[in-house]
Amino acid sequence: MGLPYFEINGGTRLRGTVRVSGAKNAALPIMAAAILCEGEVILRDVPRVADVFSLAELLIKLGVDVERRADGALRLVTRDEMNCRAEYDIVRKMRASICVLGPLLAKRHQAQVSMPGGCAIGDRPVDLHLRAMRLLGADVDLVAGDIVARAKRLRGREIFLGGPFGSTVLGTANAMMAATLAEGVTVIEMAACEPEVADLANFLNKCGASISGHGTPRIVVEGVRELHGCEYTIIPDRIEAGTLMVAGAITNGELTLENCRLDHLMAFVDRLAAIGVNVEKTDKGVVVSSARRLEPVDVTTQPFPGFPTDLQAQLMALLCVADGNSIITEKIFPDRFLHVAELNRMGAHLRKEGPTVIVEGVKRLVGAPVMASDLRASAALVLAGLAARGTTKVNRIYHLDRGYERFDDKLRAVGADITRKEGGDDAG
To answer: What pTM was computed for the model?
Structure first.
């Protein structure tokens, strides 16, 4: 039958109300943290996306029962702690699998985790994860492509997590989870400040951990003897919210977003305002509308609270149809520009110079067959297709399905002419 793809007939203004799903990047480490807990964990607003399904498959192999209840909540209970190996066949599907390393080591005293895979967005080493585990007292080796870590008891330490491109989100999550059951106090300096890290800390605290400073570059973890289960609701997905904001703006439409936290999107909303997009919080939700004429801007991606790298591709799609020249500089993943060539196929004028892309706005984009290269690039191509004249075929949408819940359904509900079809391929 071939692979699924999207067929989009562009030019329709989007209007209506959309609910933002729970955050994939918060749900994944919180699901992994269930390994630490005695008893039942109930998680609400866990999105139904491929990455969640993959991690659930991994957790089941690690002895955790994972069940989607009738009310939509996810129920996790550890039944068997014998298996401590996260195998390549599952881990290769997504990088976030590495977040089982800290919980396995802290709770079961050993972990064997295959080196992770994920999107083709550049080098993303795990050396900071391994350094954190070693500092906490673990013996860590690399054996035949697996990370093998052992420790009879972890001990609190000061851990510095700065890397060449800033702090590490999953590295902070791993260190924080491992430290919850360590003996003594752990101080994580240059910790990631992302809302997803703070959400994990809030979950762990509700399970009995003692964590403070989350949301700042200095997190302090006082080790406890055990954690218990709890009920918890995942934060809204700020990247999906930002993507939907661009969908409204690029079609000159008006969307109301429910379950959207603007305090998680301040840098992004600031750039939207400079472009000419109006974002306003109301009693009904966050309303997004745009001027007919969009202004160019300069954007540099940075760790939170700076402009998120996960919204760089989507904003680039919007700037393709702004007046004048914009400059986008990628400081987190300098190679994260595989969408540039595909947007140019649709009539965009983009020029890459090292970690920077110069965007020369055009009056309109033109539909074309394109190929998604990673999760956020696929979203950018869908957005471009919504604004383009004619028909756009977006191949490789399995990338998009990793992180967006029913994205085509949500867009169709607010007026988009988008259809999921079978028979796509791995070429544009």
So the answer is: 0.95
